[in-house]
Amino acid sequence: MGGVEQGPGGAGRGGGAARGRPRSEAVERSIIEGVMRLLEEGIPLAEISIERVARIAGVGKATIYRRWSGREELFCDVMRTAEPPDPELPGTSMRDDLIVVLESHRRRGLANRSSTIMHNVYAQMKTSPKLWKVYHAAVIEPRRLKTLDVLRRGQENGEIRADVDVELANDLFVAPMLVRAIVRPEADLEEGLPERIVDTVLAGLGPTTPERRRDPE
Questions:
Q1: Contact 14, 8 (CB under 8 A)
Q2: For the whole model, what pTM was predicted?
Q3: Burial bucket for residue 80 (CB in 10 Å: 0-12, 13-18, 19+)
Q4: Contact 12/6 with Cβ under 8 angstroms?
Q5: Which residues bind DNA (predicted)?
Q6: d(CA 181, CA 110)
Q7: Is the separation of the CB atoms in 147 and 71 below 8 Å?
């Protein structure tokens, strides 16, 4: 039956279930929920040990190590599980799609679990580069690429100017929500904020009309 499962690179999850011992979804769920409960109690990731997780989940340490090779791999799965699914974009216009994207960011900021994990990840970023790398690849980068696709379609459709740097535009749309969610946690994330952000930024990126075009003289 073998001992502790070790996948390529040491990641238990990546290597699949141990032979002869099918993975129990209920056990995995209880372990992941155990980590989430600890986070919700305000315990930093750095202080959450495998022993502590095993106690709160009601399992043995060996049960955890059969599924994950260590804390970082477990935490990576916790982050993936805690993230809500991305919403379907209406596709009616660039503006409508951007509002839906930012509304999902707003709701994530308001959601206690997602917010707790996000704050913990940023706090641990310097001490655990691997954790940040996985969070970035699993959560941040896919959403960034999705927003870039929306902006490129808008550029092709003439909704924003052809000379707009879409990478910079993406930062301009997303940054206000991140600042309020992380840097200024006391700031409101009120309904209607996505529309205000999108319309404010679009005012500077939209096609140049005759009225807005400057006289070279």
A1: yes
A2: 0.72
A3: middle
A4: yes
A5: 49-68
A6: 8
A7: no
8-81 CATH pick, 3.40.50.2000, 3.40.640.10, 1.10.357.10, 2.40.30.10: 1.10.357.10
Q: Distance of CA 154 to CAs 97, 135, 161, 163, 213, Å?
A: 10, 28, 9, 12, 21
pLDDT along the chain (217 residues), means of 10: 38 42 78 90 86 95 93 85 87 97 90 69 74 82 95 97 97 93 84 97 81 43
pLDDT of residue 44: 82
Instruction: Enter the DSSP assignment of 5.
Output: -
Q: Distance of CA 80 to CAs 57, 119, 136, Å?
A: 19, 15, 11
- CA distance readout (Å), 142 to 6, 138, 186: 27, 7, 28
pLDDT of residue 10: 43
* pLDDT of the residue at 197: 97
Place of tokens 């941040």: 140
Give the domain 84-205 fold: Tetracycline Repressor; domain 2 (1.10.357)
